[in-house]
Automatic annotation (TrEMBL):
Protein name: Transporter
Domain of life per record: Archaea
Segments crossing the lipid bilayer: 48-68, 80-100, 106-125, 146-167, 187-210, 245-267, 282-304, 311-330, 336-362, 383-400, 406-425
InterPro entries named among the record's database cross-references: MFS_dom, MFS_trans_sf
Lineage: Archaea, Methanobacteriati, Methanobacteriota, Thermococci, Thermococcales
Keywords linked to the UniProt accession: Membrane, Transmembrane, Transmembrane helix
Organism from which the protein derives: Thermococcus siculi
Molecular-function GO terms, alphabetical: transmembrane transporter activity
Record-annotated Major facilitator superfamily (MFS) profile domain positions: 1-214, 244-435
Matches recorded under PROSITE patterns: MFS (PS50850)
């Protein structure tokens, strides 16, 4: 496969695409839970609806990533998926807003969310696969650091924008509940319109500007079953995918139920009123988390290239887990702010260090032609935790009487369980080409 050592043009183009996708996922994380709270107070129902993202992500990236590897097109293997997916995702973001303001029933709002999840996942694997397609091993940590930096900057942008709009709406309406105030003003549409523009614009930019390297000749291709079977048979792939499932499930416990966690810590009960009352605070804390993720992402990529793959992943995981252990004892806004800030640094290191792993393993086993399908499975192991965290996390909270704080220590244990799996990978460290 044609490949240049390191191209800033390619990396920054992928970073722009990552920024736009993160704006879309941040819109979902920042506004879907409080909007769903207008329909139901059940943590299990809200968690299950949001977990549809995980169900869709469990299959679509795996299938579409597999077929993108062998796509024969003058437009490339990845770019057609990226263009179509970006267009659909932009339209879907506008559909979510339209469904809410038209007061559709819960099932209608859930369908709009489901279509958004489907559209976003139609090009998830292709976006991920472009980096190892174009950047050689030994430079992927640096590329991953830059891409991760822009990805989480997209989250920061959306959370900051939504928090600002809510504060403005509260000041104008006098309504104490942030999301209710936002819904009473024209400002509610702004995050959805901006998200749609970013998703559509970035997808078109990559399609018309970025040129994929010449596709490799695939001799004996594996069928879908053989591809899935090879993952289970290779211990390194299996260990990494399992470890990633665990640390993403820990993250999703916080991401999905943050508003409930804040309402329980600050008010002792996660009622609809209390959840809406902490919406603005939740958005600002998400923004803070993303700021500290940015602080961890770039050095995380450098550590990956220079100081070792295992060490960088384990360092990030431990820094992410320790504040969650403390989370069981948190009782104030200041404490939860400090905990999330520290956790963000660890998460940034962990994300930058884990992204290049699949590409490096494929290089090690001389399977560079199959980045689409293996990054499709990579995304599936990021989506399964959403499905599990939404349903299991919601059920746990309901079983313990609405104590959302219990999700902190459970999440910490999952991260710590993942670390020995990473340490046990035999072919993670590669020789030659280090930055």
């Amino acid at each position: 496969m044609e490949r240049k050592g390191f191209s800033w043009g390619v990396v920054l183009s992928l970073a722009l695409l990552g920024f736009s996708r993160s704006v879309g996922w941040a819109l979902n994380k920042g506004l879907s839970f409080p909007l769903l709270s207008s329909y139901t107070g059940s943590a299990f129902v809200k968690g299950t609806i949001l977990a549809v993202e995980g169900l869709i992500g469990l299959f679509i990236p795996v299938l579409f990533g597999y077929y993108s590897d062998t796509l024969k097109s003058r437009h490339g293997r990845r770019r057609p998926f990226i263009m179509v997916g970006g267009l659909l995702a932009g339209v879907a973001a506008l559909m979510i807003y339209t469904a809410y303001v038209m007061n559709v029933p819960l099932w209608g709002f859930a369908l709009a969310l489901g279509f958004f999840y489907f559209a976003m996942h139609t090009y998830t694997a292709q976006y991920r696969a472009l980096m190892p397609d174009t950047i050689e091993s030994g430079h992927r940590g640096k590329a991953s650091g830059v891409i991760t930096l822009l990805e989480w900057a997209g989250n920061l942008f959306l959370f900051g924008l939504a928090g600002f709009l809510i504060a403005k709406a509260v000041a104008e309406t006098g309504e104490s509940e942030g999301i209710k105030a936002l819904a009473q003003t024209p400002y509610l549409k702004i995050p959805f319109i901006i998200t749609a523009l970013f998703l559509i614009g970035a997808a078109l930019f990559v399609y018309f500007i970025v040129r994929e390297p010449k596709a490799p000749e695939i001799g004996k291709d594996e069928n879908l079953w053989d591809y899935l079977k090879s993952i289970v048979e290779n211990r390194d792939f299996l260990r990494f995918y399992t470890a990633q499932t665990l640390w993403w499930m820990s993250f999703e416990f916080i991401a999905i139920f943050l508003y409930g966690i804040l309402a329980f810590i600050l008010y002792g009960d996660a009622t609809e009123e209390n959840i809406k009352a902490v919406t603005s605070l939740g958005l600002y804390l998400m923004a803070l988390f993303n700021v500290t993720v940015l602080l961890g992402a770039l050095p995380g990529g450098i550590i990956y290239d220079r100081l070792g793959r295992r060490l960088s992943i384990i360092l990030g995981g431990v820094i992410f887990a320790l504040p969650q252990l403390w989370g069981w004892f948190i009782t104030s806004k200041a404490q939860v702010t400090i905990a999330l800030g520290i956790a963000g640094v660890g998460w940034g290191i962990l994300m930058a260090a884990s992204y290049p792993v699949i590409g490096d393993l494929l290089t090690k086993f001389e399977r560079d032609a199959f980045t689409g399908r293996y990054y499709g499975f990579f995304e599936a192991t990021r989506s399964l935790p959403i499905l599990l965290a939404g349903t299991i996390g919601g059920a746990i909270v309901d079983l313990v009487g609405g104590n959302y704080r219990v999700l902190f220590p459970i999440g910490a244990v999952m991260v710590l369980l993942a670390m020995p799996m990473v340490w046990g990978m035999k072919n993670l460290e590669v020789s030659g080409g280090e930055g």
